[in-house]
Amino acid sequence: MGSEKKPTIIITGFGPFGEHSVNASWVAVQNLKRRDLLPHLDVHIQEIPVDYQEVSQIVPNLWKEKNPQLVVHVGVSGMANKITVEQRGNNTGYERLDVKGQRPKKKCCINDGEECILSGIDMSQVCDEINKAENELEAEVSHDAGRYLCDFSFYTSLSIDRSRSAFIHVPPLGQPYSEDQLGDGLAIAVSAMLKQLTDQKSS
């Protein structure tokens, strides 16, 4: 049993942008890895710049190189005060400029792609796991990931494999959760997602 291969998971966070000179998403992802909160998994973490061109290259490369069982993108939302789990990604409407002052050509993620793609993971079940855990964390499901780099990265992964792609928005640090709490929340969410995928395989 000791030599059994651990499932490979990719978790990404974003670099600084706008008023988020410290991006809570990357802090939370690093916290999860540093504290080894998912010891039963082979966790690869990656910081992604808030840059459309970079995301469109980095995300597919991660899928190709690691062949992961699950990819979870994490981003910060200044409007969130709970852990917010996204159910779908959108292809069009990318008007906002990235950190390099660019936006995608045709303001879309993938030319002639589906307008929106639903993740095969039931995010309401993921929220239930976070909400019933013995901590102060609260989670909710969202159906609009915001038409910026968060949504863009999520849709990119969904277009590669919608059954194994997820996105989580976290609030800024201290509003209201600490770095450790955010790390804990991500660990619960990832475990819940992986359990769903394992249950689907065995059913």
TrEMBL record:
Alphabetical keyword list: Cytoplasm, Hydrolase, Protease, Thiol protease
Active-site residues per Swiss-Prot or TrEMBL entry: 150
Coiled coil (UniProt feature): none
GO annotation terms (biological process): proteolysis
Reaction catalysed by this enzyme: Release of an N-terminal pyroglutamyl group from a polypeptide, the second amino acid generally not being Pro
Family as reported in the entry's similarity comment: Belongs to the peptidase C15 family.
Protein name per UniProt: Pyroglutamyl-peptidase I
Lineage summary: Eukaryota, Metazoa, Spiralia, Lophotrochozoa, Mollusca
